[in-house]
Write a structure and sequence with these properties.
5% of the residues lie in helices and 32% in strands. With 177 residues, it is mostly beta strands. It has a domain of 117 residues. A 4-stranded antiparallel β-sheet has the order 4-3-8-9, with no helix packed on it. It has a 3-stranded antiparallel β-sheet with strand order 5-6-11, covered by helices on one side. The chain is globular, with a radius of gyration of 22 Å.
Length: 177
């Protein structure tokens, strides 16, 4: 009989601690890599009720926020608090995000980057802004995905573009390692 206790660096057999370094183990504890992509694709539901009814991919948007706003990890849904005013060729709610590239794996990291940059033409901002919220525009409550920050910008009658990074493990816009 072998009893295994989850003690870092130690395996017990018949009550004796064995030095892990003396044995080769083929198994390793890890989250399955494909599971990470499946999460991005909405294939798993651990909760007691499944709320996903659609079978098509969701639509996403990016909204811009003033430097004085308080956006961050605690955001759960899109809202207009601290968003640029709907003036100067900016519409509150932001612009659509192109999602032609599906989530995939790079090594063991699930990655996703929108397939095109997001731009606002002829923009005159209502103040200095330094953040963008990516949110699910298909969900009934506009669920927040992530907040991205950048150097503060003020734009007058110009094009503002959020250029997307390379879709790779070290650079993708969304990474689950």
């Amino acid at each position: 009989m072998i009893s295994v206790n989850f003690v870092p660096g130690a395996i017990r057999s018949h009550g004796r601690v064995l030095n892990r370094g003396l044995y080769r183990f083929a198994n390793s504890q890890a989250m399955c890599s494909q599971f990470k992509v499946d999460i991005m694709n909405g294939l798993h539901a651990f909760g007691s009720s499944v709320v996903r009814g659609g079978t098509t991919k969701d639509s996403y948007k990016m909204a811009l926020y003033l430097a004085s706003a308080s956006r961050g990890a605690g955001d759960t849904v899109y809202n207009t608090t601290g968003e640029l005013a709907g003036t100067g060729n900016y519409t509150q709610g932001g612009n659509a995000v192109t999602t032609a590239t599906a989530p995939t794996l790079d090594g063991t990291t699930a990655i996703f980057t929108p397939s095109a940059s997001v731009s606002w033409a002829a923009l005159t901002s209502s103040g200095s802004f330094d953040a963008a919220l990516l949110y699910n525009d298909t969900s009934a409550t506009d669920l927040a995905v992530a907040v991205f920050t950048f150097g503060a910008q003020s734009v007058t009658a110009g094009t503002f573009t959020l250029t997307m990074p390379a879709n790779a493990a070290a650079t993708a816009l969304i990474r689950i390692a």
